[in-house]
Amino acid sequence: MNKQEITLFWFRRDLRFEDNVGLFHALQSKFPVIPLFIFDEAILDSLPKNDARVGFIHDSLSKIHQKLQEMGSSLLVKKGKTQEVWQALLQEFDVKEVFFNKDYEPYAIKRDLTISELLEANKTTHFSFKDQVIFEEKEIVKADGLPYTVYTPYKNKWLEKYNSMAPVQEYDATEKFSNFHKNNFVFPTLEQIGFEESPIKVIPHNLKNVSKYHETRDFPALDSTTHLSPHLRFGTVSIRKLVNWATHKNQVFLSELIWREFFMQILFSFPKVVTNNFKSAYDGIQWRNNEEDFKRWCLGTTGYPMVDAGMRELNETGYMHNRVRMVVASFLCKHLLINWQWGEAYFAEKLLDFELSANVGNWQWAAGTGCDAAPYFRVFNPEIQLKKFDEKGIYIRKWIPEFDLGYGEPMVDHAFARDQAIATYKKGILK
């Protein structure tokens, strides 16, 4: 019996119908399109069974599946090692074409190369598209073709290129939804893929305060941020729609979106930053790496209210305000002299918006070891930061209910820690 000729669209970090470049092109195919998602065991096996991010992915896929059912189609969901899943798919279906959107992280690049080779060996045509960024790895470069390693000139070049083509094209595939393959695949429960519900949930994004973003973004008690970052991470929103909109709303907010792409191209161009300092001269720093100090930092019991409130917020919700992230990260690296890699790994485990490029980039920024980083002698004073950005203590009291009942003493004196950090960095920086 002949198998039906089909096209597969592979959802990954683009969990939406709206303005999805790869999906738009897939639906132009002359073959009916089966949408696919693979729960990759190479990623899942290292996660706790109640990982909130897996729950969010599952919820997002469920909404896609429900929408497809309204059109007489459904989402094909698989779980396993990606290469083995694709080998089975090629046996199960007569796959003529495969479409997917690009991913730029080291693991994803290696995975996609392996799958592309498998498809080519099977004589299956495949296409990949830029979708999660406005400009990808080699589109914003210096005059000599090398990548930027300082943000401001990168941003200027980015804006120059964007303004020459604004607004960026958006892709509406609505008229082609009839090209989805008619089927009724069973959508698995969270338990069937080996996970369980988490009490931590991704918050819907909210853009109502963006016009005042530059005025309110540094004050955690206002809760005026957009909560966009997990949605950008998993592609439940379109970066093109967001940037085209943000250009007319707030330039500081737009700059944050450009920072995201800056760190992405740094990771692509310098993959060593995942495990090594961008600035090799900092490789000689002798970190204290005290495990008991690290535990107190993780639990939010350092005696510095802004640090502790931030860590408790992270542990309870999977979120942490950006201003607080800077204070928390600086404290770990400078006050406690613990390697940024420890903090980066903890954030990777806890953050709902964990994005490898941004996490590594921001941690190295705080530690002073990254590209365009804060200078090593800049040591945030957590108490001054508290007075400037949470003067009435609203944020800290939300997360530290015992604050007014005899809160503990700081685990380390700021003046001592600052002097120790500067001396350690000076001694450790290689000439």
UniProtKB/TrEMBL annotation:
Residues of the Photolyase/cryptochrome alpha/beta domain: 5-134
**Gene3D superfamilies from the entry?**
1.25.40.80, DNA Cyclobutane Dipyrimidine Photolyase, subunit A, domain 3, HUPs
Instruction: Name a GO molecular-function annotation.
Output: DNA binding
Site feature location: Electron transfer via tryptophanyl radical:
287, 340, 363
Please give the cofactor(s) recorded in the UniProt entry for this protein. FAD; (6R)-5,10-methylene-5,6,7,8-tetrahydrofolate
Q: Does the keyword Plastid apply?
A: no
**SUPFAM superfamilies in alphabetical order:** Cryptochrome/photolyase FAD-binding domain, Cryptochrome/photolyase, N-terminal domain
Cofactor note (record): Binds 1 FAD per subunit.
Q: Provide the binding site for FAD.
A: 213, 225-229, 253, 256-263
Q: Does the keyword DNA-binding apply?
A: no
* Any one Gene Ontology BP term: response to stress
Cited Pfam families: DNA_photolyase (PF00875), FAD_binding_7 (PF03441)
Keywords linked to the UniProt accession = Chromophore, FAD, Flavoprotein, Lyase
Similarity comment: family membership = Belongs to the DNA photolyase family.
Q: What PANTHER family does the database record attribute to this sequence?
A: CRYPTOCHROME, CRYPTOCHROME CIRCADIAN CLOCK 5 ISOFORM X1
Its recorded name reads: Deoxyribodipyrimidine photo-lyase
The record lists the organism as Flavobacterium fluvii
